[in-house]
Write a structure and sequence with these properties.
The complex is a heterotrimer of chains A (353), B (530) and C (75). Chain A is α/β, with parallel strands linked by helices and 353 residues long. Chain A has a single domain, classed as SGNH hydrolase (Rossmann fold). Chain A is 47% helix and 7% strand. Chain A has a five-stranded parallel β-sheet, with helices on both faces. In chain A, α4 packs across α13. In chain A, 39% of the residues are buried. Chain B has three domains: 184 residues, no CATH class; 160 residues, no CATH class; 149 residues, no CATH class. In chain B, α8 packs across α18, α8 packs parallel to α20 and α9 packs across α16. Chain C has 75 residues and is an all-alpha fold. In chain C, 56% of the residues lie in helices and 0% in strands. Chain C contains four helices and no strands. Classes of the chains: A alpha/beta (353), B mainly alpha (530), C mainly alpha (75). Chains A and B meet through α1 and α9 of A and α8 and α20 of B.
Chain lengths: 353, 530, 75
């Protein structure tokens, strides 16, 4: 009797564990139709071949560079590990994690996140961290990122965080229980809408322009990490007009790069050279480039890479890259057509008859 | 750490595994270490408070026990040489000596309790008097930190000391074992107030792995968590809203506060006790029941025999009885009887009852709300006592009524409504406000808010209300079906799969519908601060 | 003993005190009854019942009560 009691107890514990696992999958936000940014980090694990260039950073990377152009025009294989408001320690641990899967030739880090010296918001943490596979890097990233109200446990068992979605579950949560659609092209989140930048405000004066020590620490760690893996670290500042990039910040980055012997490109300075036109090349008045801007920037940056990072190869004609990228280009083109059609339809609706 | 936290679950998991791995004679030491660790977690200064109580009580009890032994031995040796009066005198003198030690310890410990709990209340009242007298002077508040469960462990220790003084049992010789009695972690947060003679039977014993007990305890813990996380914490959200803006929520809202609070407190408090008893059961320790389906009581006196039982019996045994049989009260009894005749018999008893409820009120919290609350309880109990002959007459005229289901239902409903109305004093800021709010039930009832969607704007959605409703229904059903034997016992007897399946389903419900994590404030058990 | 039974009868006329042995266990006497009883005993027998003697074993039946009174009177 007692044996039976314990035996059935254990059996039900197993059933319970299975049920909780399923529920976990059900309650996780799917990020398919809304906030696709949340799906970016996990998509990296679907990649089948390595990349020569890996971009790491916040929205200024995943909205501003088109890997497809880098491939088609320069034969550069690249991937963007970007996510919304990615903080510098998150970038560092993503870098560390990426190096477990592959060793690229160049890592490109966007320096905008130098401005944040402490955890910002739970919501962004979730977007950036939930997608990571469980690894020491993930745990370290969570630990570094948590705001006061958060707990490590809720990252190990996201159900503990998302259980309150029980009355918001939709068909999408069932549909994407075990798989997701690809929302990006090699980490690039395509947007074809056009909303010209007008009256971009000057930055408000700040009390302190000095980047936080902790940010420099992580930047140092990035540089050391790349060096130890034989990867060149390139620092960039994407050409977004806003958030405002202060001269004082620029000076600090230039000094840092010079002291460390790193290459640093401030794309705000090559806007004209790259042919960027903020009347047509941005989808949200200058915060982010749209597809046309991202393609122009990629075209310019590809040329820069071939010139300044000669270790990056032209892999056109090489297998498996040729096949893989042919397929990627096709998806990219299809997505572009679909999005352009949708945008055109929206425009038509908006214009008065 | 509160029960509903990852820390507690980890703490208990480790303790539980170690408990059954180590040699059995060391089990109680592990419990002590665990309890101290649990207490340390609440703040190291708490350890000082509870340490002082444990050590002084142990010392005093040792002394009192030794005195008793010496006195008994002396009396035995000299019994033949004394007559009855001399023996009585010797006993009385001996008792006096023992009382001195007991009293010193009682004063010290109740003194500590009074200082940490009531300093600000007294200062606040002094300031009130100063203000009324037109003085601008104000005393600063002391803001003393209340050590976790201070009321509970103080009462438990003092009950033990008085028992030893009364010679009910010899004192515990080992300081460690006694400290475990005082600090036993499952009951630190919100009781029950155990008696040494009950708890010590299983607390220090060597416990073998007992699958049945452990399974039953585990199931009870799950049930307790479910009550707390799904129902209590969910209802706490609208309650907080309703109470925080009293001028906005009047009339029927106050009625809602009464009944919601009844359910919320029941779910929270009995849930916590279920966890306490279940956790102890898993460790082989039997803790006294603290509730006996209280909302099915037919009158207030019965309610208080079934709600927070250990507190009621504590006050009865250590306050009400000693007070009632004290010389002064007995003298009063005689006097009143001589002067007033037959009704005079009740004067002293009623006085003691009111005093008892005054003290009970003070114990519940340092505020006038609780004092008024206690006195109201006393008044209602005495009024119903006085009405007894009336009831008897009434039932004499309608003989079939008393046992009928309908009448019982009426009595249960009446008690529930009465208790709920008295209990509102718990929730509002002060006494005048409470009465004002209750008054609005009669002046501006406005029942339309029940169906115009106003209740959906109190912090929880309609779906949440449904969850709370079904949770309450489930508690009610379990209470009704478990009248003779708890549901889990019945289910296990019929088929263990039913019991375990039910538990698994409960855990799933708890994980999904529980109020915890970001967006929800982790609410503490209500009785924690008492 | 007769006197004690009279006191009890006055408290609850409808209870068979001569034969009932579960006055406390069956909740026939509540705490208010008990203290009234103690006061009456004090008056009638001049025996002070101390608080520590108020335990179920001493109050469950008239017989037990009577034995307690005698024991206390004996000392």
């Amino acid at each position: 009797m007692k044996k039976k009691l314990i035996f059935t107890g254990i059996l039900w514990c197993v059933i319970l564990a299975a049920a909780l696992w399923l529920l976990n999958a059900l309650f996780m936000p799917k990020y398919m139709s809304e906030i696709p940014e949340g799906a970016l980090i996990a998509e990296y694990y679907n990649e089948t071949a390595g990349h020569d260039v890996v971009f790491i950073g916040d929205c200024e990377v995943y909205e501003n560079f088109s890997p497809d152009v880098l491939w088609r025009e320069y034969g550069i294989t690249s991937y963007i590990r970007g996510s919304a408001q990615q903080l510098i320690w998150q970038s560092y641990y993503l870098m560390e994690e990426t190096l477990k899967y592959e060793t690229p030739k160049v890592m490109v880090f966007n320096v905008l996140s130098m401005q944040y010296g402490e955890p910002q918001s739970e919501a962004y943490n979730r977007l950036n961290l939930d997608g990571m596979r469980l690894s020491p890097q993930k745990l370290a990233a969570v630990n570094a990122s948590m705001t006061e109200e958060e707990s490590l446990l809720s990252y190990l068992f996201p159900l503990l965080r998302y259980h309150s979605r029980w009355n918001e579950l939709t068909g999408e949560d069932v549909e994407y229980l075990f798989h997701r659609d690809q929302v990006s092209d090699s980490g690039y989140l395509m947007n074809v809408e056009v909303r010209p930048a007008e009256n971009v405000p000057e930055g408000k004066p700040l009390a302190d322009y000095q980047f936080a020590d902790i940010c420099y620490e992580y930047l140092d760690k990035m540089a050391e990490l790349c060096e130890s893996h034989g990867v060149e670290l390139v620092l960039v500042k994407a050409p977004s007009l806003y958030p405002y990039w202060y001269d004082e910040w620029e000076a600090q980055m230039e000094d840092y790069a010079a002291a460390r012997g790193l290459q640093y490109v401030n794309c705000l300075e090559i806007v004209d050279e790259a042919g960027l036109d903020f009347r047509t090349d941005t989808y949200d008045h200058g915060l982010h480039l749209n597809l046309y801007g991202a393609e122009k920037l990629a075209r310019w940056f590809g040329a820069w890479l071939t010139q300044h990072c000669p270790q990056v190869e032209d892999r056109r004609g090489q297998e498996p890259y040729e096949t893989i990228w042919a397929e990627k280009s096709e998806t990219y083109a299809q997505r572009k057509t679909a999005l352009e059609a949708a945008w055109a339809a929206e425009q038509k609706e908006d214009t008065p008859q | 750490m509160s029960f509903a936290s990852a820390q507690f679950l980890c703490f208990f998991a480790v303790l539980f595994v170690l408990y059954y791995l180590i040699p059995r004679r060391h089990q109680w030491k592990l419990l002590l270490a665990g309890s101290l660790f649990f207490y340390f977690f609440a703040g190291w200064y708490c350890l000082i408070y509870i340490g002082v109580t444990a050590v002084t009580t142990w010392l005093a009890a040792q002394k009192v026990g030794r005195l008793q032994q010496e006195q008994d031995a002396w009396l035995k040796a000299h019994r033949d040489q004394m007559d009855k009066e001399q023996r009585k005198a010797y006993k009385a003198a001996g008792k006096k000596v023992r009382w001195r030690w007991t009293l010193a310890c009682l004063l010290l410990n109740f003194g500590i309790l009074a200082v940490v709990k009531y300093t600000d209340f007294v200062l606040g009242n002094v300031n009130g008097v100063l203000a009324a007298a037109g003085s601008a002077a104000r005393l600063p508040m002391a803001d003393l930190v209340l050590p976790m469960g201070v009321s509970f462990y103080t009462f438990q220790s003092m009950g033990y000391l008085i028992d030893v003084y009364w010679g009910k049992y010899p004192p515990e010789r080992s300081l460690g074992k006694f400290a475990l009695f005082v600090t036993f972690f499952p009951q630190l947060i919100q009781g029950p107030i155990s008696r040494f003679s009950d708890l010590s039977r299983s607390l220090y014993a060597e416990h073998r792995w007992d699958s049945r007990q452990i399974a039953m305890g585990g199931m009870r813990v799950v049930w307790g968590f479910a009550k707390k996380l799904i129902v209590a914490d969910r209802l706490a959200i609208p309650l907080r809203e309703l109470v925080s803006a009293p001028e906005q929520y009047t009339g029927i809202y106050v009625l809602a506060v009464m009944f919601l609070y009844a359910v919320q407190l029941y779910a929270d408090f009995t849930g916590g006790i279920d966890i306490t008893i279940g956790v102890s059961q898993m460790l082989g320790v039997q803790v006294t029941e603290n509730f006996e389906r209280p909302f099915f009581s037919k009158n207030i006196a019965e309610y208080w025999r079934r709600w927070h039982i250990t507190m009621g019996t504590w006050f009865r045994d250590y306050v009400f009885y000693p007070l009632s049989v004290s010389k002064g009260v007995l003298k009063l009894h005689q006097k009143a009887r001589a002067k007033l005749g037959e009704p005079g018999k009740r004067v002293s008893v009623y006085l003691c009852t009111m005093l008892l409820w005054f003290v009970t009120g003070v114990w519940h919290g340092a505020s006038w709300n609780f004092i008024v609350w206690g006195l109201l309880n006393g008044v209602v109990i005495l009024v119903s006592q006085e009405c007894e002959p009336l009831y008897a007459k009434f039932h004499g005229r309608f003989p079939g009524l008393k046992g009928s289901f309908g009448y019982r239902l009426f009595e249960v409903g009446r008690t529930f409504v009465l208790m709920s109305s008295i209990r509102v004093l718990d929730v509002y800021r002060d006494v005048p406000l409470t009465f004002k709010q209750v008054g609005t039930i009669f002046t501006s009832f406005r029942p339309s808010v029940l169906w115009n969607g106003s209740f959906l704007e109190l912090g929880i959605t309609g779906a949440d209300w449904m969850v709370a409703f079904f949770g309450t229904l489930a508690m009610l059903a379990c209470s009704l079906l478990g009248r003779k034997e708890p549901m889990r016992e019945q289910l296990v007897r019929r088929n263990p799969n039913l019991a375990w399946g039910g538990c698994a389903a409960l855990v799933v419900c708890m994980v999904i519908f529980g109020i915890y994590g970001i967006g929800f404030d982790a609410t503490q058990f209500i009785y924690n601060q008492f | 003993m007769e006197e004690l039974l009279d006191i009890l009868k006055e408290l609850h006329p409808d209870v068979d005190f001569e034969h009932c042995t579960t006055l406390i266990d069956d909740k026939i006497l509540d705490s208010i009854d008990i203290v009234s009883l103690v006061a009456e005993i004090n008056d009638a027998f001049d025996v002070a019942v101390p608080a520590e003697e108020i335990v179920p074993e001493n109050f469950n039946s008239a017989q037990a009560l009577w034995e307690m009174i005698q024991r206390l009177d004996e000392a």
